[in-house]
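seq/struct pair 1
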Amino acid sequence: MPVQQLESMTQPCSPQSIYVLGVRVDRLSQQQALDRIEQIITQRRAGGDAEPCQQVVTINTEFVMAAQRNPAFRRAINEAALVLPDGIGVVWATHYLGQPAPERVTGTDTLEALAKRSAASGYRLYLLGAAPGVAGAAGSYLREVAPGLEIAGTYAGSPAPDQEDAIIERIKTARADVLCVAYGAPAQDLWIRRNLSRLPVAVAMGVGGAYDFLSGRQRRAPRIMRRTGLEWLYRLYRQPWRWRRMTAIPQFLVLLGLRGRKQNHD
């Protein structure tokens, strides 16, 4: 039996989840995802930090295809507390498999919405990753759109294992509730998983290129393109070098057509 099929049967799958080529997707709206994140934060605060850190992953078709080749990455996704459908291809796949996700839940939009909730509730965010200075610029933007938001700290750092102890000490000193990590996939998600048991926060979420967009370093697609699922085309236009990464899309569609329905009904 293929590894992907075996994992889809052995990993816990709630009524709100579906497996796309062996990779879990939670069929939640952004509002529902934010409610769950806030619940996790509240539980940890009430428990005096006794509750372990919970991982949040936002996935697209590139993640799904990378997970076919990388079992550690697949486990990190499938065992996370939340797995959100960031890419329109993943949302389409859930519709094709008959268990549709209600909407696309992007890391960038979720981070901005989480910042507003955090400002209202007094949660503290730590922004880790991206190029030097980018996380700080993203934090400044988030404070503008979410007045009163506490940014506990920002740091570029590195996903290299030999820097983990120093980074975790920084986060511990900052007393953050939420850690956002922008090292790109799969590095950011594997970094979180490796350190999950000792991260001194309630939630750790991989956010990919969110800081670049929030800081203005990269321009996002017009809203109409985002709503119609064409943001990938705009990014390809702005960054032609991404064409190699885009080859994951036809591969994903072929595999989904060949194995998708069978895998989710076996």
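seq/struct pair 2
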Amino acid sequence: MILTYGLPFYIKIDVEGYEPNVLNGLQSAVPYLSFEVNLPDFRSEGEQCIARLREIAANGMFNCAVENRLMFSEWMSHHEFAKVFPEIGETSVEVFWRTQA
């Protein structure tokens, strides 16, 4: 779709655990992307998505939101976010990723 319609500003992915499959099809960075993770059931899929986004753009920055509020005051590198993600105790979070696309 990017080849046909151009680079979108924001992509929202919500496919109930199939987010890694969707991200495997993404070949280039976009300015903003988000996906929901229901915890703890889909934590592994969330970790796969975080790793895949690092492959797409190593300089991408992460944050996440609960109830429409960012959880962290600062956006984090993949390395930093991969450390805190397993410790999130919420039942559902929206993971946000931004790049300099």
